[in-house]
Amino acid sequence: MPPTPGTPDTPATPATPDSKPSVLFVCVHNAGRSQMAAAWLTHLAGDRIEVRSAGSAPGHAVNPAAVRAMAEVGIDISAEAPKVLTADAVRGSDVCVTMGCGDTCPVFPGKRYLDWQLDDPAGQGVDAVRPIRDEIKALVQNLIAELAPEPQAPPGT
Fold it and tell me: Rounded to whole angstroms, how far apart are CA atoms 97 and 100?
Protein backbone atom coordinates (compact mmCIF):
# COMPACT_ATOMS: atom_id res chain seq x y z
CA MET A 1 0.00 0.00 0.00
CA PRO A 2 1.49 3.40 -0.92
CA PRO A 3 2.23 5.92 1.83
CA THR A 4 -0.25 8.65 2.57
CA PRO A 5 0.80 12.28 2.32
CA GLY A 6 2.12 13.55 5.62
CA THR A 7 3.78 10.30 6.59
CA PRO A 8 7.38 9.56 5.79
CA ASP A 9 7.79 6.63 3.43
CA THR A 10 11.51 6.37 3.92
CA PRO A 11 13.95 8.31 6.07
CA ALA A 12 15.69 11.22 4.44
CA THR A 13 19.07 10.39 3.05
CA PRO A 14 21.75 13.02 3.54
CA ALA A 15 23.47 14.21 0.40
CA THR A 16 26.62 12.44 -0.70
CA PRO A 17 29.45 14.19 -2.53
CA ASP A 18 28.08 13.03 -5.91
CA SER A 19 24.37 13.54 -5.24
CA LYS A 20 22.14 16.43 -4.37
CA PRO A 21 18.80 15.88 -2.66
CA SER A 22 15.73 17.49 -4.20
CA VAL A 23 12.73 18.94 -2.40
CA LEU A 24 9.32 19.84 -3.80
CA PHE A 25 7.09 22.24 -1.85
CA VAL A 26 3.38 21.99 -2.64
CA CYS A 27 0.41 24.10 -1.58
CA VAL A 28 -2.89 24.75 -3.29
CA HIS A 29 -2.13 27.99 -5.14
CA ASN A 30 1.70 27.94 -5.09
CA ALA A 31 1.37 31.61 -4.23
CA GLY A 32 2.36 31.84 -0.57
CA ARG A 33 3.61 29.05 1.68
CA SER A 34 5.32 26.93 -0.98
CA GLN A 35 6.89 30.00 -2.60
CA MET A 36 8.28 31.19 0.75
CA ALA A 37 9.55 27.69 1.58
CA ALA A 38 11.29 27.34 -1.78
CA ALA A 39 12.86 30.77 -1.39
CA TRP A 40 14.08 30.00 2.14
CA LEU A 41 15.54 26.67 1.05
CA THR A 42 17.33 28.25 -1.91
CA HIS A 43 18.60 31.12 0.26
CA LEU A 44 19.77 28.97 3.17
CA ALA A 45 21.07 25.85 1.38
CA GLY A 46 22.48 27.45 -1.74
CA ASP A 47 23.19 24.83 -4.37
CA ARG A 48 23.34 21.91 -1.88
CA ILE A 49 19.66 21.06 -2.47
CA GLU A 50 17.58 21.17 -5.64
CA VAL A 51 14.39 23.15 -4.99
CA ARG A 52 10.97 23.00 -6.68
CA SER A 53 7.56 24.37 -5.81
CA ALA A 54 4.13 23.85 -7.31
CA GLY A 55 0.42 24.11 -6.62
CA SER A 56 -2.50 21.75 -7.07
CA ALA A 57 -4.59 24.71 -8.34
CA PRO A 58 -2.02 27.44 -9.06
CA GLY A 59 -3.01 31.05 -8.56
CA HIS A 60 -2.39 33.87 -11.01
CA ALA A 61 0.41 35.55 -9.04
CA VAL A 62 2.45 35.20 -5.87
CA ASN A 63 0.70 36.64 -2.82
CA PRO A 64 1.83 40.30 -2.47
CA ALA A 65 1.96 39.98 1.34
CA ALA A 66 4.31 36.98 0.98
CA VAL A 67 6.47 39.01 -1.41
CA ARG A 68 6.63 41.88 1.11
CA ALA A 69 7.32 39.59 4.08
CA MET A 70 10.18 37.87 2.27
CA ALA A 71 11.58 41.22 1.06
CA GLU A 72 11.78 42.28 4.72
CA VAL A 73 14.36 39.51 5.28
CA GLY A 74 16.27 40.28 2.07
CA ILE A 75 14.75 37.60 -0.18
CA ASP A 76 13.12 38.73 -3.43
CA ILE A 77 10.34 36.44 -4.70
CA SER A 78 8.63 39.14 -6.78
CA ALA A 79 9.65 37.52 -10.09
CA GLU A 80 8.30 34.07 -9.13
CA ALA A 81 5.12 32.71 -10.68
CA PRO A 82 2.81 29.94 -9.49
CA LYS A 83 3.43 26.61 -11.24
CA VAL A 84 1.15 23.62 -11.70
CA LEU A 85 1.90 20.43 -9.79
CA THR A 86 2.87 17.58 -12.10
CA ALA A 87 3.53 13.92 -11.46
CA ASP A 88 7.00 14.45 -12.98
CA ALA A 89 7.83 17.08 -10.34
CA VAL A 90 6.90 14.66 -7.57
CA ARG A 91 8.67 11.75 -9.27
CA GLY A 92 11.84 13.86 -9.63
CA SER A 93 11.95 14.88 -5.96
CA ASP A 94 13.35 13.01 -2.98
CA VAL A 95 11.14 14.83 -0.48
CA CYS A 96 7.67 16.24 -1.14
CA VAL A 97 6.50 18.78 1.46
CA THR A 98 2.78 19.48 1.34
CA MET A 99 1.21 22.52 2.98
CA GLY A 100 -2.55 22.26 2.91
CA CYS A 101 -3.06 20.63 -0.49
CA GLY A 102 -4.83 17.61 0.95
CA ASP A 103 -4.84 14.47 -1.14
CA THR A 104 -4.14 16.14 -4.48
CA CYS A 105 -0.41 15.43 -4.36
CA PRO A 106 0.48 12.28 -6.29
CA VAL A 107 2.04 9.59 -4.12
CA PHE A 108 4.91 7.47 -5.44
CA PRO A 109 6.59 4.62 -3.58
CA GLY A 110 10.08 5.42 -2.33
CA LYS A 111 9.43 9.14 -1.88
CA ARG A 112 9.38 10.85 1.47
CA TYR A 113 6.29 12.93 2.21
CA LEU A 114 6.01 15.59 4.90
CA ASP A 115 2.92 17.64 5.67
CA TRP A 116 3.66 20.99 7.29
CA GLN A 117 0.60 22.36 9.08
CA LEU A 118 0.84 26.09 8.40
CA ASP A 119 -1.72 28.88 8.34
CA ASP A 120 -2.73 29.94 4.84
CA PRO A 121 -1.50 33.47 4.04
CA ALA A 122 -4.14 33.92 1.30
CA GLY A 123 -6.03 37.15 1.86
CA GLN A 124 -3.86 38.07 4.85
CA GLY A 125 -1.83 41.23 5.34
CA VAL A 126 1.91 41.23 5.85
CA ASP A 127 1.48 41.35 9.67
CA ALA A 128 -0.25 37.95 9.54
CA VAL A 129 2.25 36.54 7.02
CA ARG A 130 5.40 37.32 9.07
CA PRO A 131 4.83 34.54 11.65
CA ILE A 132 4.10 32.06 8.83
CA ARG A 133 7.32 33.15 7.08
CA ASP A 134 9.31 32.66 10.30
CA GLU A 135 7.75 29.25 11.01
CA ILE A 136 8.61 28.15 7.46
CA LYS A 137 12.21 29.31 7.96
CA ALA A 138 12.56 27.13 11.09
CA LEU A 139 11.09 24.10 9.32
CA VAL A 140 13.40 24.64 6.33
CA GLN A 141 16.44 24.96 8.59
CA ASN A 142 15.59 21.60 10.18
CA LEU A 143 15.14 20.03 6.74
CA ILE A 144 18.53 21.35 5.59
CA ALA A 145 20.23 19.99 8.71
CA GLU A 146 18.80 16.58 7.88
CA LEU A 147 19.31 16.50 4.11
CA ALA A 148 22.44 18.53 3.46
CA PRO A 149 24.22 19.74 6.57
CA GLU A 150 27.06 22.22 6.22
CA PRO A 151 30.35 20.42 5.60
CA GLN A 152 32.46 20.38 8.73
CA ALA A 153 36.05 21.60 8.57
CA PRO A 154 38.58 18.93 9.54
CA PRO A 155 39.96 19.32 13.07
CA GLY A 156 43.01 21.54 13.27
CA THR A 157 42.21 23.69 10.23
Answer: 10
Q: How far apart are the first and last CA of the chain?
A: 49
The pTM of this model reads: 0.84
The residue from 23, 24, 27, 54 that is catalytic is 27
Q: Which of these is catalytic: 36, 101, 139, 143?
A: 101
Query: Which residue in the list 105, 143, 144, 148 is annotated as catalytic?
Result: 105
Q: Are 69 and 97 in contact (CB under 8 A)?
A: no
95-138 pLDDT, tens digit each: 999 997 666 677 778 889 999 999 999 999 999 999 999 999 99
